Amino acid sequence: MALLLNSSASPCMNPSSGPSPDGQPLETTIGALLIGTFLGLVLFGIAAHQAWRYFIFGTDTKLLRGWVSSIMYMLGIFTGLIIVLCQRYSHQNFV
């Protein structure tokens, strides 16, 4: 375990970016983060479309509409934070 956390253990590790918690260098894991973010954005678009159709054509109570609104609000905040995370790791650390 100590060997994985030692930055001199692997010649491909960049000490400026540091290893991720599992010992992998960030340069090898940023692609998976970007792919996951893109797929998450597609799913967010699908959920937003479903919520829009729910509010246009739904006949549920205000309590259920408020519940759907709060879930979509939290999902939007989460998506925005993931986008900021991708921007930080892919642009600011590699400039």
Keywords:
95 residues; mainly alpha; 3 helices; 0% strand; elongated
Structural class by sheet pairing and helices:
mainly alpha
Unreliable sequence segments: 1-15
Query: How much strand content do the residues show?
Result: under 5%
Please trace the helix and strand order, writing H or E for each element. HHH
The number of distinct β-strands equals 0
End-to-end distance? 31 Å
- Helical fraction: 55-70%
Region (Disordered): 1-24
Transmembrane segments: 30-52, 64-85
Biased composition (Polar residues): 1-19
Keywords: Membrane, Transmembrane, Transmembrane helix
Briefly characterize the structure.
The protein is an all-alpha fold.
What does this structure look like?
It is a single chain. By secondary structure, this protein is mainly α. The protein contains three helices and no strands. It has helices at 2-5, 26-57, 62-90. It is elongated, with a radius of gyration of 20 Å. Residues 1-24 are annotated as: Disordered. The chain crosses the membrane at residues 30-52, 64-85.
Q: Layout of helices and strands, plus pairs?
A:
Layout: H1 2-5, H2 26-57, H3 62-90
Helix pairs in contact: 2-3
